[in-house]
Amino acid sequence: MIRVAVSLARREFTRFARQPQRVIGAIAQPLMFWAFLGAGMGTSFKPAGMEQMTYLEYFYPGVMVMMLLFASIFSCITIIEDRDAGFLQGVLVAPVSRLAIVLGKVMGSVLIALVQVLLFTIAAPFLGLSFSVGGFLLLLAGFVLTGTGFAALGFLIAWGMKSTSGFHAVMMVFLMPLWMLSGALFPVSGAAGWINVVMAINPVHHALNIIRAPFYGDAMSMLASPAYLLSLAVTIAWAVVCLILSMKRVEKREKGA
Fold it and tell me: Is the overall model pTM greater than 0.70, yes or no?
C-alpha cells in the first residue's frame, strides 16, 4: 500500500514540476497578494496590543496558509483530469488498496505545498522573524497538518465532481471563506461577535495559530500552552476526519457504475 501511495505522490509532484506556468502561478499569486495588501494597509494597521507590528508581518503566516490552500486546490483538480483521461479508472480496477489512492493524492499535494511554503519561509528574517530548531520542527509539522487537511478536503470534494471549472468554483466559494475567517486578514480580537464564534470553530483558524506561534515562542513554551495544544488538537482532528471521509467516499460505488 505504501509503495502504491508513494508512486502516486511522486507522479503528482512530477506533473507539477513539469508545468512551469503552474509553478509560477502557485507561488506568484500569494506573493502578490501579500505584497500589495501589505503595502496598502501600511501604517493603518494598529490593533490593540500590536502597535509595533506591520501588516506585512501580521499577514505573513496567513499567506503561508493561503499557499497551502491553493496547492491543495490545484493538486486535487488532477483527480478530475485523471478520470477524464482514464488513468483513475485504471487505478481503481487494479488490486490496490483504496486507502493508497487517497494517501497518494494527499501526500503529493502536501509535498507540492511544502516546496512552495518552505521557499516563502526564506522571507522571515527580512521581517525580523526567527525561530529555534524546535520551533522550525513545530512549524514544519503545522505545514504538514494544514496541507493534509486542505488536500483531504479537496480530494473529498473533487471525487464526485464532473468538471474542473465546477470544482474550482466550489473550492473557492467554500475554502476561501474558511481562510478569510481564520484570522489571516484581521485579528480575532477586532472582529464582530458572531465572527468570533465562527472563527473559534473554524479549523483553518486553529491551523493558522500553530503556524503563527513558532515565530513568537520557543518549542517548550508552545507545548506547555493550552491554547497552542488546543489548536494543534483541532488541526490534527480536522486532517484525520477529512482523510477518513475521503476513504469512505472512495469506497462508495458511483451511481450507475
Answer: yes
